[in-house]
Specification:
The complex is a heterotetramer of chains A (about 325), B (about 575), C (about 325) and D (about 300). Chain B has about 575 residues and is α+β, with helices and mostly antiparallel strands. Chain B is built from 16 helices and 26 strands. Chain C is of the alpha/beta class and about 325 residues long. Classes of the chains: A mainly alpha (about 325), B alpha+beta (about 575), C alpha/beta (about 325), D mainly alpha (about 300).
Chain lengths: ~325, ~575, ~325, ~300
């Protein structure tokens, strides 16, 4: 097992290097430069425009040959230096350190919301297959999957914040992380971000549960006199969760960099998603590379966790 | 609202040169109803200013180029002067008005003696002189506005001289006359010499210096003190109890001042309506709704930025533009009233030149007002076109080759107002038989492929004005773009319209215009009446010459919760914001 | 209160269990009655698809509903009708007083739970026992059914067990709460022949200890070894029943006889590979009259008209065939 | 073959939701193809008719007079000339939505098609050749899977400028990984089947085996994947438009929605109408996809 993990870690480093290299060159071959956004503002007397652009590029180290920049970058990364974010005026790592928690709490709560409700409704729907409750759950899960989450977010704000005044129209970062007020502030964002996933999980859990309900060991468990609660909660669910775990983990990276960003924009949550997309628009290369790299590492980490979790969830699986 | 309270009008003119600008001033003066009993200011509450214009880039202001950065710093440091709603100078850090020598070459500034940095060290003339000479003018420092402090001496660009006279007095000494230099020298703050000295020469250290990035040195220099800056979220300030202007009055009156960034205009409007923020800019379509709200007060202010329709006068534009009469014919076909009503919903003034109405240099007399009244006449326009050899055939104008004329209009994508203007221009020009194709381009693409130009075949680096023979990589005919002007120093617009102008994108070359712009920087122009005459002449000339079609000076609308007191609406609304308070 | 004889432990009466499918009603069990006495081993014999498993599942109400539904009949256990018993009481009987063993130990054990835990949870469900005690008991049980190193094995997962050991574990599980009846649904058919014998040995021992066993199988060899009584089913109906010797010595029903002819031991005597011609009929649309008549060598006039009753041949032996009664 | 199609058709249509989805999609496709011939030019601007509400609704139009500080207000009613109303430039929303349907379907189908082709080829090749080829292709797939998809999409579109075709290509080039893996595992299990073994022994060419035998056999997965990928792609394009990275020269539903979302409380229909269409279309594809999946699932 230890050897397996070691191998996976080495593999992850290889993948991360691939992602890093791809991002780095992607950014550099594009037509836009960090100086562009200054152009509008730099111009005073015509003849100095190019000189000033050169100054900006020199300040950001963009004047060196590409391969030197690349090697320098790798070198400083290896020394733990992630560089300076010129669009926010702070070290890249510190920027990420401050902002990851806003995304994290949003994603964590959304995932909890999605996983918990998804499993609950999915299992219920499967157990009550072909009943009215099942049809309703199925129908709503389709709606949940299909509704664009940015659209849902706007509608929620319009109804609950503006018209009904139940929630604030934006997320307040000054709330203590572990407080009821913070939880309340996250209700709408969590629903916005979590609904799609929740609905998707409902579908998967339902299908998986249905499949497992037909299995022989479920009959055995019933024959043992176990109440339905135990039969479904323990025997069916544990087996039904196996394929779902992969899907949830796979979904996670999509949520982090797709849904979470849109949700953060709509609700004004200064999470990593918003930071990274603003960095893209501001040509803040250091942040873009760092976020992509970290995103890749997190994905790889979750993949590893998933695989390890499997050995606990499913004792039949062993890695050498 | 941003920047308006301070002397960054000029900076702003640059900041907004190509980008879009916030709000600056006011066309029509509203008076605060005096029937209400004036309330007594008390220190209380948190003022939350909502914006969706984007976050600042740095508080280490010497590197700043964006409005938000200057605005953020401005809350903690007043600067030398401010302007009131009549654009008169209001002293802030200065103890008395700036003295200009009779020959217009020496500018003397005297600081108050009760200004100090955090820690109690007095702010001295030496701090300013050091900031200029050792930082801004230094080779190692990529200060973006260096050229504002240079002058042409014997064909070379040289920095002006700065020197300290005594503890509170310092001087700028020029070798050439530039009456508007007056408005440049009050643009910036200073760094405390005793802190920044150790970073001198080390760009990386200066960039990353903690005390410069968290404004911990601002002492009693501004109404608020820096507390926290959560990127892309909020900039938090607290009341500065030591504020030098508050010694007698107790100002400022807000416990906290927060700039809150809201991702979208929709979120901004919703937050104001729900009372989650104190003030924000309101889009034209929403103004009526907000004006009707009980708890909201909306102020309508003008701006000094204007939208222009440029014709490509360079060799890869339609050759017809080189003919002034055709330019006039086109301008006659585009109704400024329709534009203002349809797109700005009335919240704009028609523009005929680069000087806005509130400017002291504004002259209305003799302006050619194309696009309104009698000079909005499509039939006449068609006649002129026909006279100049562009006949209509089957409702379409034919170009020199006998093909139906098709012009390409470009603008940067994402700016909804400019996109709408493109559509309107298309609609208007189709009435006189000109077909227009729309192209909305990302900013970088527009800049690099359409705006920057060079002489074909040469190895010039592309720039915005590489002379009359230069053309852009890709052809265009019409361009909708926002320009900004400094109502106090309109000569800055020479960058757009003079032969040597660095932003003369359109390729307009007129010696008469060049000489008028040069006249502003002469000894004669020290006389204000003379300067007004020159500007009047310039305005008239450009309104008739039409290097581009000046379209409109948009107004901006700012909404406040009704309990904010002390607001003086006008061109510089917010110049006295330290006196605002909650009822 | 229905009448029950003192020795009668389980009595199935007129059981009808149908599957309601899209293509129609499958009459999987159509009027089956039999009794299981204390200490007795009753074998339910028939081809696959004859409805034997459905009978077994009906007893503990384990049929999936929908699509299955028990439409008629009663199942009396110690005089109580299991079919109408409240859920709570039923749970106590399932696994507690009546235990069940299934055909395929591979799929009948939960793959993600330890063998021990699967036994323990049943013990805890029925007996007031601490987990540690229950575990001890589980180890004992595993020992009893012949699993070596039970201490260690108790913590293993099903996939780590061989087929035979899994079935032993299933048996241990069934025995864990001291049931009165064990229902074994083809417990050996998924196993190797050598293992089959071992498992069968265990069943014999259980029988000797006085447990009542309802043993479902299609293997007449096993029946010979273990059964006290035999009930032969075909297409959801009982064809013949009797004490084991009677059936083996004198199989009367043409179907039973067919089954015997297919036995490997009897096969040797003949040259050709024996089989019962035709296939088991559709239970959606069963043949009129005797369900076996389309495949019957002896069918005559009344066979395709009316359903034959069970005609007694002796006190303990009955046959549902017009050859042995029904007039004419 | 025909019978097989019939069989799956029957199985798919067993689900009423799938049938609804199919009918909706067919109508949408017909509207997208032929609609623009009836609805007129979606780019025809007419500022005199801007911000007209849909039929049955009315709205106040106000214009400010900067000299007097007063509003001039008129009540405007929706008319049959523009049954779904107009936008702030007076463009007919019905025409825009119809041409937007074309765009959305174009993006959805093309990008999905591209992703499926790449994914299938890689998956089948990987499974068929095994060994080094398999290893290399799957490692590459891993790198692509690890890339934060939406971030990459935004990055590329921002760097190279938002054009519809670029968006399609980028989605296609990045969205194939899931398909590749699924196809690979399906093909792996097919490869071991007798008829493929037989073909190998008989000396059929690799190309022939892959294209004539393996791919048709994994077609069912591909069909299902396509149906459930299309709405994802349509949503991705809408999300890009939402953050201002849609192709500015094309009025996709996402672009219309983006243009209207700032004025939801006044000219609500501009954002609501494309939102509903977007939602219904995605829903229809999901219904159909689910029905197809069930139909192809042999255990059902």
């Amino acid at each position: 097992m230890r050897e397996y993990i070691l191998r996976r870690v080495i593999y992850a480093i290889f993948i991360a290097w691939g992602v890093f290299t791809l991002t780095f060159f992607l950014l550099r071959i594009g037509p836009s430069s960090p100086a562009d956004k200054y152009l509008a503002t730099l111009v005073a007397k015509g003849e100095n425009v190019e000189e000033l652009i050169a100054a900006v590029e020199a300040r950001q180290g963009l004047d060196k040959p590409l391969y030197i920049q690349y090697l320098d970058y790798i070198n400083s990364l290896l020394h733990g230096d992630w560089g300076w974010s010129f669009s926010t005026s702070m070290p890249v790592m510190e920027l990420i350190k401050i902002h990851w928690k806003y995304s994290f709490q949003l994603i964590l709560l959304s995932m909890l919301f999605a996983v918990f409700l998804g499993i609950l409704i999915g299992v219920y729907s499967a157990v009550k297959q072909y009943t009215k409750a099942d049809y309703i759950a199925t129908f709503f899960s389709f709606i949940g999957i299909s509704i664009p989450n940015f659209w849902l977010g706007i509608m929620l704000i319009l109804v609950f914040s503006v018209k009904l005044g139940v929630f604030k129209t934006y997320y307040d970062t000054s709330l203590p992380m572990f407080s009821l007020a913070n939880l309340k502030a996250l209700v709408l964002p969590v629903i916005t971000l979590g609904t799609g996933s929740m609905a998707a999980y409902t579908r998967y859990v339902r299908a998986s549960t249905l499949e497992n309900l037909r299995k022989d060991f479920v009959r055995t468990a019933r024959a043992k006199g176990l109440p339905d609660r135990v039969v479904i909660g323990k025997h069916v669910l544990r087996n039904a969760m196996l394929p779902v775990v992969t899907i949830i983990m796979f979904d996670l990276s999509g949520v982090v960099f797709g849904g979470a960003y849109l949700t953060e924009i709509i609700f004004g949550i200064p999470g990593l998603g918003q930071i990274s997309f603003n960095a893209i628009f501001a040509d803040d290369y250091g942040v873009v590379v760092a976020v992509t790299l970290i995103g890749a590492l997190v994905t790889l980490f979750f993949n590893l966790i998933t695989d390890i979790a499997y050995t606990y969830l499913d004792p039949r699986i062993r890695y050498e | 609202m941003r920047l308006s309270r301070r002397r960054f009008l000029r900076l702003c003119a640059k900041a907004g040169a190509l980008a879009m600008v916030g709000s600056l001033g006011c066309l029509q003066k509203e008076t605060v109803p005096s029937t209400e009993k004036p309330a007594i200011p008390q220190v209380k509450g948190t003022f939350i200013e909502g914006t969706s214009a984007g976050d600042a880039e740095t508080l280490n202001w010497i590197f700043a180029a964006d409005q938000a950065s200057f605005s953020y710093v401005g809350y903690t440091m007043d600067g030398l002067i401010a302007y009131d709603n009549d654009l008169n100078i209001v002293l802030r850090w200065l103890a008395k008005p700036i003295e200009v020598s009779d020959d217009g070459l020496v500018y003397t500034l005297t600081l108050r003696d009760d200004l100090y940095w955090t820690g109690g060290k007095q702010v001295t003339a030496e701090d300013f002189v050091y900031t200029y000479k050792n930082l801004m003018f230094a080779d190692w420092m990529p200060f973006n506005y260096k050229d504002d402090y240079r002058e042409d001496v014997d064909g070379k660009r040289e920095f002006v001289e700065v020197r300290a006279v005594n503890k509170t007095t310092y001087q700028f000494i020029r070798q050439t006359v530039d009456p508007e230099f007056l408005y440049t020298i009050t643009d910036f703050w200073a760094y405390p010499k005793h802190i920044v000295k150790k970073y001198e020469g080390d760009l990386k250290a200066f960039t990353q210096a903690e005390e410069l990035n968290n404004l911990s040195y601002t002492g009693n220099l501004g109404p608020y003190r820096f507390v926290e800056w959560v990127r892309n979220d909020k900039f938090v300030l607290e009341r500065n109890p030591d504020y030098y202007l508050g010694k007698e009055t107790g100002a400022p009156y807000f416990e906290k001042y927060i700039v809150k960034i809201l991702g979208t205009p929709a979120a901004r409007h919703a937050a104001l309506e729900a009372g989650d923020i104190t003030s924000t800019v309101i889009d034209p379509l929403q103004v009526k709704k907000f004006k009707e709200m009980e708890h909201i007060k909306v102020y309508t202010n003008p701006t000094a930025s204007y939208t222009m329709l440029l014709w490509n006068l360079r060799n890869n534009g339609w050759e017809g533009f080189k003919n002034k009469r055709i330019r006039q014919a086109l301008a006659m076909s585009i109704s400024k009233d329709a534009l203002i009503q349809s797109i700005y919903l009335g919240f704009a003034d028609p523009a005929f030149s680069f000087i806005p109405k509130p400017s002291p240099w504004y002259v209305e007399e003799g302006l050619s007002m194309y696009g309104v009244g009698g000079l909005y006449d499509k039939e006449k326009a068609s006649e002129i076109l026909a006279e100049e050899g562009y006949e209509q055939e089957g409702g379409r104008i034919l170009d020199k080759n006998g093909e139906p004329l098709k012009l390409t209009i470009i603008t940067n994508s994402g700016n909804k107002v400019r996109e709408s203007i493109c559509f309107l221009v298309k609609q208007e020009l189709s009435d006189i038989g000109i077909d227009v194709e729309l192209k909305f381009l990302p900013w970088a693409t527009e800049l690099n492929q359409y705006l920057r130009n060079k002489v074909p075949g040469s190895d010039q680096p592309p720039a915005f004005n590489n002379g009359p023979d230069a053309v852009s990589e890709k052809p265009w005919d019409l361009l909708v773009i926002g320009f900004s002007t400094d109502p106090l120093a309109p000569s800055g617009s020479s960058t757009f319209f003079s032969s040597e102008g660095g932003l003369n994108i359109e390729g307009y070359f007129n010696p008469e215009v060049d000489s008028l712009f040069q006249k502003v920087k002469t000894r004669e122009a020290l006389d204000e009446a003379e300067r007004r005459r020159i500007y009047g002449e310039l305005s008239r000339l450009l309104s008739e010459e039409l290097p581009g079609d000046f379209l409109a000076f948009p107004a901006s609308n700012v909404g406040f919760q009704k309990n904010v007191m002390g607001i003086e609406p006008g061109i510089s609304m917010g110049y006295n914001y330290h006196e605002w308070f909650f009822a | 209160m229905p009448l029950t004889l003192p020795n009668e432990l389980l009595s199935v009466r007129g059981l009808k269990a149908y599957f309601y499918t899209e293509s129609g009603i499958v009459r999987a069990v159509d009027g089956v009655s039999f009794t299981l006495d204390r200490g007795e081993c009753l074998c339910l014999v028939g081809e696959s698809g004859s409805g034997k498993s459905t009978v077994a599942l009906s007893i503990l109400r384990l049929l999936d509903s929908p699509p299955a539904r028990i439409v008629d009949g009663e199942i009396l256990f110690n005089g109580k009708n299991l079919l109408t018993l409240p859920e709570k009481e039923l749970l106590q009987i399932r696994g507690g007083r009546i235990a069940m063993i299934f055909q395929d130990p591979q799929s009948s054990l939960n793959p993600v739970l330890k063998i021990g835990d699967q036994i323990i949870e049943q013990i805890i469900q029925h007996k007031k026992m601490k987990k540690s005690e229950a575990k001890k008991r589980a180890i004992e049980l595993l020992n009893d059914v012949g699993i070596p190193e039970a201490e260690r094995r108790v913590n293993e997962y099903p996939h780590q067990f061989s087929g035979g050991m899994r079935q032993r574990a299933m048996i241990a599980m069934a025995l864990s709460c001291g049931p009165e009846i064990i229902i074994a649904d083809e417990p050996t058919s998924a196993l190797d022949v050598t293992v089959q014998a071992q498992i069968l040995e265990i069943f014999k021992e259980l029988k000797d200890k006085g447990l009542s066993i309802l043993f479902i199988t299609h293997d007449l060899g096993i029946v010979a070894e273990i059964a006290d009584k035999v009930v032969v089913m075909y297409a959801g109906k009982i064809m013949e029943r009797g004490v084991v010797n009677e059936i083996f010595d004198k199989p009367l029903h043409p179907y039973t006889r067919g089954l015997f002819e297919c036995l490997p031991t009897t096969m040797k005597a003949k040259k050709e590979f024996p089989y019962i011609p035709g296939t088991i009929p559709s239970m959606i649309d069963p043949p009129k009259g005797c369900v076996f008549h389309p495949r019957c060598r002896y069918k005559f006039e009344p066979c395709d008209k009316d359903i034959p009753k069970e005609y007694p041949v002796s006190d303990t032996h009955t046959v549902a065939c017009y050859l042995y009664g029904g007039g004419k | 073959m025909n019978r097989l199609v019939k069989y799956y058709w029957k199985r798919t249509m067993r689900s009423r939701l799938a049938a609804f989805g199919l009918v909706y999609i067919i109508i949408l496709v017909i509207v997208a193809i032929f609609g623009p011939f009836f609805t007129g030019d979606p780019n025809a601007v007419n500022f005199a008719e801007k911000n007209l509400p849909p039929v049955g609704f009315s709205i106040e139009h106000s214009v400010y007079d900067i000299k007097s500080g007063e509003f001039t207000t008129v009540v405007v009613k929706g008319s049959l000339k523009h049954p779904l109303g107009t936008d702030d430039k007076g463009r007919d929303l019905l025409a825009m939505l119809v041409s937007g349907a074309r765009v959305s379907l174009y993006v959805g189908i093309l990008a999905t098609g591209l992703a499926l082709i790449i994914g299938s080829v890689i998956g089948v090749t990987s499974a068929y050749f095994g060994g080094v080829v398999d290893n290399a292709l799957m490692r590459f797939t891993d790198i692509m899977m690890t890339f934060p998809f939406f971030l990459l999409l935004v990055l590329i579109v921002f760097i190279f400028g938002p054009s519809l075709n670029l968006i399609i290509v980028v989605i296609g080039l990045t969205g194939w990984t899931g398909t590749a893996r699924m196809v690979r595992s399906e093909a792996l299990s097919l490869r071991t089947r007798e008829f493929i073994q037989a073909l190998i022994v008989l000396g059929s060419s690799n190309k022939r085996i892959i294209f004539r035998h393996l791919i048709p056999n994994v077609l069912s997965i591909i069909i299902v994947t396509a149906t459930i990928s299309i709405p994802g792609v349509i949503l991705a394009e809408a999300a890009l438009s939402f953050i201002g990275l849609g192709d500015p020269s094309v009025a996709s539903w996402g672009r219309i929605l983006n243009a209207g979302q700032d004025s939801l409380d006044t000219t609500w229909w501009v954002a609501v109408e494309p939102g509903i269409l977007l939602f219904l279309t995605v829903l229809a594809f999901n219904f159909l996809g689910d029905g197809l999946r069930d139909a192809f699932d042999p255990t059902k």
